[in-house]
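[Meeting: bench + compute handoff]

Bench side (C.D.) handed over the final construct sequence. Compute side (W.E.) agreed to return the predicted structure before the next meeting so the bench team could plan truncations. Sequence as handed over:
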Amino acid sequence: MESSADVELAKQIVQVLGIMLATGLFTGLLAKKAKIPDVALFLVVGMLMGPQMAGWVEIRSDSAFNQGLLILGASYILFDGGTSLRLKVLNEVWITITAISTIGLLITAIITAGAAYFILQLPFVVALLLATTIASTDPATLVPVFRQVPIKNRVAQTVMSESAFNDAMAAIITFSLLSVAMGSGEFSLPQALFDLLRESLLGILTGGVIGWMVAVLIGHHRYNFLQEQAPVAVLMGVISSYMIAIHFHGSGFMAVFLYGIVIGNMDAFGWKMPHNHAENHENHVISTALIMRMFIFILLGAQVDFSLMNQHLGGGIAVVLIFMLVARPATVFLCAGPDRRARWSRNELLFMCWTRETGVIPGALAGMLVGMKAPGAPIIASVTFIAILMTILIQATTTAWIGGKLGLLTGKES
């Protein structure tokens, strides 16, 4: 009896996942020997295995499986980043994080939109749409980079926190501008700021509550009956934080990030797992985050559309260079420079200027714009692909070198 179409599809998916795991395993070992962040090599391997080259990995970017895997993977990586942050450090740099992930995103978007307007000859609203799509930094890239490159603690935690907080604002402004570009509404900055505040607070509240509940169940001396099942309980919390926040129109990614902060700072609340359970839990988080990185970045690489990218290659590279070398430094120095509480050094500011990879979140936004047939969507997708490739392959791979030159390496693995 012939297999049904659904069974054949399931077999193909299992086969692709197996290929990604096998190639990801050896790619990760190669990255470790070469002492570069593995996300860059995963991206290159994905491009080589994609439908436009070897054809081993072919999953449509608009498929439910792809979207589900990206959401789960990005959520877990954000949770992993949240667990590494310390409340004491966040208390010192919260002004910078707030300014750079809100006002800073607008500065980045306006400068980049100006470049796109003059270089690519786009209508200004389309140029703004492009700029807001790529303006947010990518937590799924930055978290693993700082897991592998031992950068000074407060600098790494500031950049990771910014990447978690600014995706909500980028998405809100992008879709507000989309309604203008499609002639179905008018952009309102006060409304956009209100939506940002609402989504952020709902995300923070959801992540905090779920985090507190899970922390009690795995770390409280009396109610820790899920302690031996901590890895499963924690994964359940990641999924619950995202889904509950989204259900109430909050920021799902902010929720999982806050959830991670609470789980990572259980000792601050007087809760602590025994050493053997804590070590088992940490090893599980590290292994799961590695698998998620493999899936996300191999998939992202496999979905790079070279023909689309080549249509606007020269202009796109020029826009992205201005984005990297003008917009980002202006954002950092205008938003973090005046922060007297943090007292950033010149070298710390220079490092933050360089480290701002573009990845999963902008890629997802660009894909949604293409699916919605937004004005200028092909050009937006093209420049987004160029930004992803340039920032990950150039900036992520040079993070350790730049950190060393600026004297920000701690000399130990994080």
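W.E. noted at the follow-up: The two ends are 54 Å apart (CA to CA). C.D. will use this when planning the next construct.
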